[in-house]
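Hey, resending since the last one bounced:
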Amino acid sequence: MKRILLGLAVALFALPLQAGRGPGAVRKTIESSMLVTGLIEVDEKGGVTNVELDRPGELPEGIRGFVPRSMIEWKFAPTLLNGVPVALRNRFGVRLVARKQDDGGFNVRIASAQFDPLANPWKDDKETMERLASAMTPPVFPLSAQKAGVEATVYLLLKVGADGTVHDVVTEQVNLYFVAGANVMDKWRKLFADNSMRAARGWRFPADFHPALTADPEGREYWVSRVPVDYRFSDSPERAYGQWETYVPGPWTRAPWQTRPDMPGFRPDTLAAGGLYPVGGGEEGLRLLTPLQDG
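The structure tokens again:
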């Protein structure tokens, strides 16, 4: 039995080798990643004063030290409340990425981060979350991919009108959980991307949900959101918090109509698990100034 999950972290498993040209070169791009969550405290000047990891006992020993040690050096833009700088205590999620080096060791970096207030009005609203989930009918797992045993995660960027209809959708990235030559990988990425976008064009969100409305040159209002779509088999193992997951990352394609700035070092495939990620203008909440490592 096959299943598709929206916005959930993918499982870690051995990447099977399939026929194609240049699989050796593709293998060099394999990454492993891990999501680490917790609490961060930032003072009025934008300096980090404390980092608390969730469930530290479930994290590898080296990671327990590496994450707080790295984050304590970060700098944020001062957050203003009624024009006055204030200290903040937020939830965070950081995505670690590890890549094998020629000497056999691994380079580990914090590739991206997200910050949420301790109380998030729309995420904490169970009814709203249920309505949003019902709006996103998962696409059907492509039969050819089922037969070939190919799994993937597709990262969509949606442009949603104020009435809840999807005006436009772009696939920003497709990660694959197998290894083949570059041409074969490109064909599978296109298949999964087209399949996901076809389904997303039919989604209709609640008309009263518009977290960050803006207007295009013709004055039409819309909001932008990212949605990860997971294609996986029901017997794929679930990975626990603190474990690595392995994949071949695809290239990041930017939507021509997306003008809102992303956080330094952001990549679509470093989103924390969740499902729906409205893209704001960056004017509110924590804004990281420290560039993250890009690879």
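The two ends are 36 Å apart (CA to CA).

Sorry for the duplicate.
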